[in-house]
Amino acid sequence: MPFNKRLLKNLDYLLIAVIFCILALSLLVLSSATANISSDPLFFVKKQLLAIGLGGICAVFMMAFDYNRLARYQHFIYAVLLILLVIVMVKGHASRGAQQWIVVGGSFLIQPSEFGKVMIIISFASYLAKREGKLNTLRDLLPSFFYFSVPFLLIVAQPDLGTALVFLAILLGMLFFAGVRPGLLLGLIGGGLAVVVTALALHFSPLHLPLPLEEHQINRLISFIDPYRDPHNTGYQVIQSLVAIGSGGLMGKGLYRGTQIQSNFLPDHHTDFIFSVVGEELGFLGAGLVLLLYFILISRSLKTAFFAGNTYGRLLVGGIISMWLFHIFENIGMTIGLMPVTGIPLPFLSYGGSSMLTNMVSVGLVLSVQLRREKMLF
């Protein structure tokens, strides 16, 4: 079916402008953060630009594509997701204690769990839309938990705790947008936190209850509570991040002038800790700009969800908002010591092809829903 150009009158150009601003900032900050990592100072910038280009094509395609047609492929998309996660477990490329990647073409690494985030959103939105009005009790929610549990457990088995937590955030967020009572959701969250706290307390007690976590994951939790307990190992990254952000002051030290960044004292500063680069080199004002851009991104997406033409569109955008919110909160939180380190990238800003493609497809879906929305009153 040809694209109806009259739909473009519904396009939110402010949302698009915000995405362009974040992407431009990503390239600018990456050029500084990676200047001393490779023999080619623009190596990572070029790869990021390639990911942005491919992602842009995907975003335009998804925007033009009627999102309602995706609901028909719910079971197919869900099956492909499970197959990809199984392939990772069987033949995946391992790095840093986790088997998360598939090697393509001999040199390119793709991370199926990243694409899995948007795949589970597309699939689960269709599932929930069919159960509208039938999600009133805990018993009603059990099938939804089972639906999510299979890919969730496959990701935990990699092990990739960060992405598993993103899946949980997507689940809870989409249930909220599906109309599940806030009291019921808060009860589930409270119960889950109580179980986690109790398990941790028993693990560190004389009983030493074993946890279903890898040793490096447990060490990350310990360093979150007290990074100075092991400042040269598990707590090193958080401490260096705090030093970087704290030394930036109001205006920052300037691009290519950050001590922690240019001297490579902070590991992964171009990926998971890109916000630390912003804090040190662009200061409080630069960090504030990033937060403002994300606020506009989320608020405009919320407006799209509110005025979506149907339940499926609302759930689709709601899932994407939940994913973005958790990424933003967790990533920035871990750079300032408020959250444990999980290896979750900052949307549109961190270096990473799989992450960039996932986010660009996601924004394309938001725009697709936006184009086909109900008439807005403000």
Largest sheet features: 3 strands, antiparallel
**What number is the mean pLDDT?**
87
Give the strand line-up of the largest sheet: 1-2-3
Helical proportion? Answer: 55-70%
- Structural class of the helix and strand makeup? mainly alpha
Q: What's the count of strands? A: 3
DSSP strand (E) fraction? under 5%
Overall, the morphology is: globular
- Element-by-element helix/strand order: HHHEEEHHHHHHHHHH
Taking all Cα atoms into account, the compactness measure Rg is 21 Å
Number of helices: 13
Please mark out the parts with pLDDT under 50 across 5 or more consecutive residues, or reply none.
none
Number of individual domains: 1
Through-space gap between termini: 30 Å
Describe the structure.
The chain has 378 residues and is mainly α. The protein has one domain (5-371). Helix content is 64%, strand content 3%. The chain has 13 helices and three strands; from the N terminus they run αααβββαααααααααα. The chain has helices at 13-33, 43-64, 74-91, 112-130, 138-156, 161-177, 182-203, 215-225, 236-247, 259-262, 274-306, 311-335, 353-371; strands at 93-95, 98-104, 108-110. Strands 1-2-3 form a three-stranded antiparallel beta sheet, with helices on one face. It is globular and about 55 Å long. The mean pLDDT is 87. The chain crosses the membrane at residues 13-37, 49-67, 73-90, 102-125, 145-177, 184-204, 282-299, 311-329, 349-369. GO terms for molecular function: lipid-linked peptidoglycan transporter activity; peptidoglycan glycosyltransferase activity. Peptidoglycan polymerase that is essential for cell wall elongation.
